[in-house]
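Our preliminary data section would be incomplete without showing what the modeling component actually yields. Below, a chain of 411 amino acids is followed by its predicted structure, encoded as tokens that our downstream tools consume directly.
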Amino acid sequence: MSKYTDALIERRNTIVAAAQDITDTAADDGGRDLTEEEAAKVKAYNAEIAELEAKIEDFAKAEDRSAKFAESFAGRRQRAEVREREQRRDAVENPEGKADPIIDKRSVGQRFVESDAFQNWNGHGTSAPVVFNDFLGIEQRAAITTDDLNILPYQYTGRIGYVTTTPFLDAIGREVVNSNSVTYIDWGTGDPLAGGPIAEGDLKPEAAITPTEVPLVIETYAHWKAITRQAIEDYPRIQSIVEGKLRGGLANKLESVAATTLTTATLNEVTNADLLAGIRQAVGEIQAEGFTPNAVVLNPADFAALDIAAAAASNSGPTAFGNFWGLRPIAAGAIPEGSAYVGDFKQGFTWFDRNVTSVYMTDSHADYFIRNLLVVLGEARSAFAVTDSAALAKVTATAPVGGTTARTTSK
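Predicted structure:
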């Protein structure tokens, strides 16, 4: 069974478990009917399960067909024809002493997998050797493309020492996980209010806490770049430069995905003609829920407009700005203009990180070894979610941003 089929089966089992948890919760709660939200989740899970099962069945059939063909008369005949061509090529020489130009256009990997030595291997120890007489001679290879980093001056004049910043990722909560999917607990909105005063001996009320399990899939983000081995030999620093750019690109992607996730969440909303006043209102609402806001996320254009307006309305000039109501402003292009998100992001928004950003380098890609190319691959596996909506609020301005006359700091 292929790795892809295994992944589909693992995903299917995860969703089945999530759907079962919802129905089990209803059963344990006195056998009640599912809520509208629970029923919608179960319906969506069942639809995805059916889609995955159809894919699994299709791939299983394809794998069965491939296995049957390999064992069939046609499969054996195909391998015999290949062996015959190889024997003719080895036996015949032209006047220049070169091998017979009968070319097997299959890749080396395909020829190895279809060889008798591999087909007859019992899976233990070492198989019989497979010899390719044309490995470096007749087999055709593509030329190195100009997109590969193979021409570099010794004196590098690009940006060196640049560090990609991720202010939003730095402001949110982070959980390191060790699987392809996770389930986190949604504890509802805020903390429940205790009863009282209660006389001694009287019945104490139960706290209104209803935890809900929420499944989440860890996604993969990656990109790569090829470098010639000679480029690294002539200028070793190019490897670290490329690795740095790959890491920076992944960090920028995760920052963007996190901000986009925030804009699609269902949150408490504050509407005000003045965005700056709306931000202050949101601070009060979040404080009333028992949280302490630590940041405001807004569009870069709105960040600039508020700073300019606040500076114009003050006596301290532009150098005293860069915060609104004591909150750390975070510019994010994914946030629409005219809106902002205020909150205690350490408590309310979580980054589920499968592993730190990894960078790998290898020549084991297609024919890169012979082309003298090295592939540098950067990869990160992450997911983001609003894990406590009471700690966050969305602010929407009903008038153009930048007309505020309020001060952001007291001087």
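The CA atoms of residues 75 and 243 lie 44 Å apart. The chain has two domains: 3-119, 167-188+211-397. Preliminary results of this kind motivate Aim 1 of the renewal.
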